[in-house]
Amino acid sequence: MPRIAPLLRTAADPKTGATLDAIKAKLGPVPNLFSTLAHSPPALNAYLGLSEALSKGVLTPRQREIIALAVGQANACQYCVSAHTALGRQAGLTEEETRSARSGRAEDKLEGAVALLAVQIVQHRGNVTDGELAAAASAGVSEAMTLEVVAHVAMHIFSNYANNLVRTEVDFPPVAI
């Protein structure tokens, strides 16, 4: 049972309601993460704004989902691992690639470097070693990609921690962590 229940659309103020309506128009059902964050419109809008901005970056949809899976697993967030397993499929990840991403790996050299860097950022709280950063760069992770990986990690830590704290009810096919 969630510690904070999702905000019902009927209880939302008009501006937040319009945001929830826009999410519904784009995604269909409003994921519980978003309707829970709607209790704090600034928190919801911060998450949505960062997500939208990062969707226009240099990382591919596959790479973004790999990061989400790696960070979600590192933070033991069942909601996020479940959600991004489903979203990863939409981005072209196979079941095996999804499992690999969750452990910070990928068969593709660049995708593997992105996954590993994301896990290292989480594990070291951003204090990645020179050697770890050099290894990512030698695998093709550019400076722009590195900074976007950090931004994605931050965004996913926010959602992981929020979901873990709130115990958001998983409304995607559940995946064990």
User: Assembly type of the shown chains?
Assistant: single chain
How many helical stretches?
Answer: 9
Report the count of strand segments: 0
Q: State the CATH class of the largest domain.
A: Mainly Alpha
CATH fold topology of the largest domain: AhpD-like
Main sheet attributes: strand count, strand direction, barrel closure: none
Shape: globular
Q: Which CATH-level-2 architecture of the largest domain?
A: Up-down Bundle
Low-pLDDT windows of residues: none
What is the C-alpha radius of gyration, as a whole number of Å? 16 Å
Mean pLDDT: 98
Total of domains: 2
Distance between the termini: 18 Å
Content-based structural category: mainly alpha
Please give the share of residues in helix.
55-70%
Question: What is the succession of H and E elements?
Answer: HHHHHHHHH
**CATH level-four homologous superfamily name of the largest domain:** AhpD-like
Taken as a percent bin, the fraction of beta residues is under 5%
